[in-house]
């Protein structure tokens, strides 16, 4: 190098463009390598989800459709008869339970937690079948009718209300999607939540958030009650329907439910006898 002229030595020294070129090549090399790690993680996550999906598809139905499930349930509401001898999930939950609920009658199932009150409602909805015994509605065995027709006659207000990430109006309309706005508002009035909805920024178009996180527990329960009122079922199941409400709201809703449940067969599940007002 010492023998070269000064201009030649200056040419051999790194220039600014050389650093830029080197940096560009390094970025082009490391960016695909970085994406390889991301894709590998996504592929591993997809394999785990696929295993869970295949395990879910391999699950056997607890309630299987029998070959004689060929006719629709026709309810004239002469009576609803329950005669049960039940073992659920290989654990004896109910045994030698026999009772009859007449048409238009309201019956309360009162007892401590774990005594099988909600299990009776699930059996009536046919989420699973009793290992022995039977359930008749208006003289028809519910195991012999289509599940869709059976559930079309039943409205339930659950203890744990599940709401969709949609407007509060659509959440109420879920029980009857063809209902008009006026019918939704009447159902909300009967559930004592109409005034609270009007206080919201967008009224019935207000988003409730994932699983209804923007609403309080009492408001979610009143939305569930409005759903049931909108469906206008002939059989109503109330699974601790006012457990998340204050005393005044509970009394208002119980008064509304007393009107809604008139001339309808109603089964109320409660854990304390002081709540029995509909009966």
Automatic annotation (TrEMBL):
<comment type="similarity">
    <text>Belongs to the ABC transporter superfamily. ABCB family. Heavy Metal importer (TC 3.A.1.210) subfamily.</text>
</comment>
<dbReference type="GO" id="GO:0005774">
    <property type="term" value="C:vacuolar membrane"/>
</dbReference>
<keyword id="KW-0547">Nucleotide-binding</keyword>
<dbReference type="InterPro" id="IPR036640">
    <property type="entry name" value="ABC1_TM_sf"/>
</dbReference>
<keyword id="KW-0813">Transport</keyword>
<dbReference type="GO" id="GO:0005524">
    <property type="term" value="F:ATP binding"/>
</dbReference>
<protein>
    <submittedName>
        <fullName>ATP-binding cassette, sub-family B (MDR/TAP), member 6b</fullName>
    </submittedName>
</protein>
<dbReference type="InterPro" id="IPR039421">
    <property type="entry name" value="Type_1_exporter"/>
</dbReference>
<dbReference type="InterPro" id="IPR003593">
    <property type="entry name" value="AAA+_ATPase"/>
</dbReference>
<keyword id="KW-0812">Transmembrane</keyword>
<dbReference type="GO" id="GO:0020037">
    <property type="term" value="F:heme binding"/>
</dbReference>
<keyword id="KW-0067">ATP-binding</keyword>
<feature type="domain" description="ABC transporter">
    <location>
        <begin position="75"/>
        <end position="278"/>
    </location>
</feature>
<keyword id="KW-1133">Transmembrane helix</keyword>
<dbReference type="InterPro" id="IPR017871">
    <property type="entry name" value="ABC_transporter-like_CS"/>
</dbReference>
<keyword id="KW-0472">Membrane</keyword>
<dbReference type="GO" id="GO:0016887">
    <property type="term" value="F:ATP hydrolysis activity"/>
</dbReference>
<dbReference type="GO" id="GO:0015439">
    <property type="term" value="F:ABC-type heme transporter activity"/>
</dbReference>
<dbReference type="InterPro" id="IPR027417">
    <property type="entry name" value="P-loop_NTPase"/>
</dbReference>
<dbReference type="InterPro" id="IPR003439">
    <property type="entry name" value="ABC_transporter-like_ATP-bd"/>
</dbReference>
<dbReference type="Pfam" id="PF00005">
    <property type="entry name" value="ABC_tran"/>
</dbReference>
């Amino acid at each position: 190098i010492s023998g070269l002229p000064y201009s030649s030595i200056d040419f051999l020294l790194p220039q600014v463009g050389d650093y830029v070129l080197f940096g560009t090549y390094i970025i082009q090399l490391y960016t695909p390598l970085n994406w390889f790690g991301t894709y590998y993680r996504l592929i591993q996550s997809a394999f785990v989800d696929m295993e869970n999906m295949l395990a879910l598809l391999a699950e056997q139905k607890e309630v299987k459709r029998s070959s004689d499930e060929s006719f629709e349930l026709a309810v004239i509401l002469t009576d609803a008869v329950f005669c049960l001898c039940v073992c659920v999930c290989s654990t004896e939950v109910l045994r030698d339970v026999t009772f009859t609920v007449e048409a238009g009658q309201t019956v309360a199932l009162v007892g401590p937690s774990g005594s099988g009150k909600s299990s009776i409602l699930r059996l009536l909805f046919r989420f699973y079948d009793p290992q022995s015994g039977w359930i008749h509605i208006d003289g028809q065995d519910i195991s012999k009718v289509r599940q869709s027709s059976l559930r079309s006659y039943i409205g339930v207000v659950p203890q744990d209300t599940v709401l969709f990430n949609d407007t509060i109006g659509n959440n109420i309309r879920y029980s009857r999607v063809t209902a008009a706005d006026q019918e939704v508002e009447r159902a909300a009035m009967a559930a004592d939540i109409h005034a609270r909805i009007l206080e919201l920024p967008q009224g019935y178009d207000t988003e409730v958030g994932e699983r209804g996180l923007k609403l309080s527990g009492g408001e979610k329960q009143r939305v569930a009650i409005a759903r049931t009122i909108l469906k206008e079922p002939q059989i109503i199941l109330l699974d601790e329907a006012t457990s998340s409400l204050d005393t005044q709201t509970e009394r208002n809703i119980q008064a509304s439910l007393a009107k809604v449940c008139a001339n309808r067969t109603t089964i109320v599940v409660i854990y304390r006898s002081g709540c029995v007002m509909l009966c």
